[in-house]
Amino acid sequence: MSTTFSISQLSKEFGITTRSIRFYEDQGLLEPTRRGQNRIYSRRDRVRLMLILRGKRLGFSLAEIRELFDLYDHNPTNSAAQLRQMLAIISDKKAALEQQMKDIAVVKQELETAEQRCLDALQQQ
Questions:
Q1: Which of 36, 65, 80, 92 is most solvent-facing, going by the fewest CB within 10 Å?
Q2: Domain containing 84: what range?
Q3: 81 and 108 housed in the same domain
Q4: pTM assigned to the model
């Protein structure tokens, strides 16, 4: 595997636009070097991009992802602090999902009630 990557290589590998990669760079999540106008991404940037995309799929905000990166950057050997922070974020995400599931169940019940009223009204016509 190469030790450096172009923005187009990363874009193709991860199936995202170069604009997205530049956005993550603007947010301070990626730090490519420059060779003239070209961005040169390291293995570290590639791993971070993979983690950003995984975090986004899990519902993490960019601020939460940045917080985890900052914890690692500040003390790469203190995995306990990183893990505790990750557990706190996971707990918050699970609580939010549980609330969403409850809200969905309520809306579903309301829709079923409205549906039944419509069916009853049609039968009475």
A1: 36
A2: 75-125
A3: yes
A4: 0.71
